[in-house]
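1st attempt posting a full record on here, be nice pls
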Amino acid sequence: MSDTQVRGYVPTLIAGCLGVFVAQVAYSLPASVLGTIQQDLGISGAQLTWVSASFATAMVIFELTFGVFGDIFGRKQLLVGGLGVLVVGEFVSLAGAGNVHALWIGQAIAGIGAGALYPISLTMIAALAPSSVVRARSIALWAGFLSIGAAVSPIAAGTLAENGHWKSSFWIPIALAAVALVAAFAAKNSSAPEGRRLDVPGQLTLIIGLLALVWALTQGSEDGYGQTGILAGFVIAAVFLVAFVVIEVRSPSPLVHLDLFANRAFAVTGIVAIVGMFAYLAICFSMTMFLGAVIHIGAVYIGILFLVIQIPALLLVPLVARLIHSVSPQWVLTCGFVCIGAAGLWASQFDAHSFLDANGAPHDADFVRFVPPMILNGIGFALTVGSITAVAINAVPLRLAGMASATTNLLRDFGFAMGPVLGGAIYNSIANSRLDDGLDAALGEAAQQGFTVLGQPLDPHVPTDAVMGAFHGIAQDGGALAVNSVPVLSDPATGKPFVDMPAALHDLAFTSLSHAFNVTFMVAGVCALASALLAVIGLAGAKSASRQAIDLGTDVVHQVAGVAEDVQPA
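the predicted structure (as tokens):
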């Protein structure tokens, strides 16, 4: 690479890496403090799931359209705009952190900004890379910055939460976005406007379909999947997602060229991106909830575990770059998903009771038991995320690089979104079902032992029906997570302590949650192993990036000499 090429490409590489870094910081930030949020705001399991799901859903919904925006209007402009929207969302989250509904809104706005940053940051790097070697290294570096973002924000937020300042953690992405904005103005612009138009019908059907699906999955875990409203949500999701496919097939300028999926490598990596990334993030999210919201281990220790997850991704950046360039993605992806699967199955063997000391209090030091499986999970992520991206981009002509990048990001991030959404649906529904089944027996045992308030016998004039009604109410409205986390029920009218949570009811909720998370970890592990099997079979014969370049007779995989009309540096 000449000095001129270096001077032109390096600022773009820096801006793209900082862009995805900020997006990942914002996405990962609430993870380590979910337990603190649940205890502070007293919200149910489904409400807590929406803290992460609102960001992820908004991000996924708009990624494809932002890919089109970047191709038409310029990727540099969209990078700057995405950073600005993310900052607005974080300010809303900061101002409304004491109210869960305001927190949802703020995280959804920040998710829209991230929905621009993920595809655009990658596309502007890939589009201007002067050689296949540089492109492979740049993709690996981009994935490394994504991993750094996932590592630093949970431990920083966890530290603030430990000192009673979890709401202040939203300043972190705001400050980092300011730095990224400065870098973005030095980047080179690029676009690929040929044949690209906004697809409004496709975007609308995708928004409605995905929102209905996420809502039904999340709310159904609390209300029950047999409820009429939940079933209607699934029907609406199916109708609009099918309509999206029909519209995309007929559209002269679709959000997604479905012909891309005729390429076997692209189609297989798309499937494993969804299933495998669901497994990865379901393990991460479930670890957070298991330790934070169930066992109540300190948030800073959960942050340390997120750092442990990302260390392999940081250390393996040079190796992954070489593997992307020289080894068939069949083996890289297979090895990665096997690691993720092993992590899930390992974590499924942990019993929540074993993390408590003799007095029933959380033993913080036991968080280290999650270190080995989380290292495996991190190795799997390092091997898969960059490889998925490289296969997708290298499988299409450069004029479709923006669409391929946006589509791959959509599929990968849809898998990420399903981590908390579907993972939360699994453990919430299992735990709440077991709680409902044993509720009357546990309350009967508690009544025999006698109810207390602040450790003292309850006033005998307090009607037993009122006490039973209060416990039924919190069990039905808040579910197992609320029962496990609320030591004392307060009188809604006066705010004064009303009755202590009976030990029998707390133990029922705790045991139900322990079993539910075991199942969730196991499901995630099995999904990762299924992705490994699909990769080893479906990508048989797939070629490395360097071999593709040789076969195409070009040093860049894509024919750079003929793309002046597609990539227009500013």
